[in-house]
Amino acid sequence: MLASIKQYLKDFDALFFPRVCQSCGRSLVKTESCFCTICIYQLPYTKYHLDQNNKLAKQFWGRLDIASAAAFLYFNKAGKVQNMMHQLKYNNQPQVGVELGKMYGKELVKEFHYNNIEAIIPVPLHPKKFKKRGYNQSEQFAIGLSEIMKIPVYNQILYRDLEKESQTGKSRTLRFDNMEAVFKAEKPNLALNNILLVDDTITTGATLESCALVLQSIGIKKINIVGIAFTE
Ligand SMILES: [Zn+2]
């Protein structure tokens, strides 16, 4: 009896607050979560995790010594990926990040390369943005990856150096030159050698480069980069 009342309330709720696809806006059926089947079928997957010499990884060549770099999707403007990233970042839909993390996690666990990773570290969000948004979108993606890959998320190791950030914020060029100074890393109690550094949309890779440099400075040897989307 109680179960049927619960179902009734759930259906009632769905009537006024229908669950919609966070990519195309279509109503979702019971078996779908976050994205509709059509979108999942049509998303522009990069398959970069299967190719160590992919376009994103090449972007870091000569700049940074990393173990690998991959992104789940291509970020195409005015497309499905742009819609979901908008929902994730500006429309209070943290579950979009978690769902994408779970989807990508299912692909990554199949690959030997990602089998010995000890920690997932999200790129930290500026505290002001965190307060406004209520969550860090990269961390939400990390949570989804963690759930499937069974690797813990460490969100205290890497953080923003706010003092340095306000100093360098004065001039644009100066800010770019001092990018690596904006992040700081705390050496964890447990020695970490092989980690997954997680971002949302990757464009120039400058943020990731700064993060990776400070992580290397605390002794982390193998850094694998993973993003939700890559802007070519
Ligand atoms: Zn859809």
UniProtKB/TrEMBL annotation:
<protein>
    <submittedName>
        <fullName>ComF family protein</fullName>
    </submittedName>
</protein>
<dbReference type="InterPro" id="IPR029057">
    <property type="entry name" value="PRTase-like"/>
</dbReference>
<comment type="similarity">
    <text>Belongs to the ComF/GntX family.</text>
</comment>
<dbReference type="InterPro" id="IPR000836">
    <property type="entry name" value="PRTase_dom"/>
</dbReference>
<dbReference type="InterPro" id="IPR051910">
    <property type="entry name" value="ComF/GntX_DNA_util-trans"/>
</dbReference>
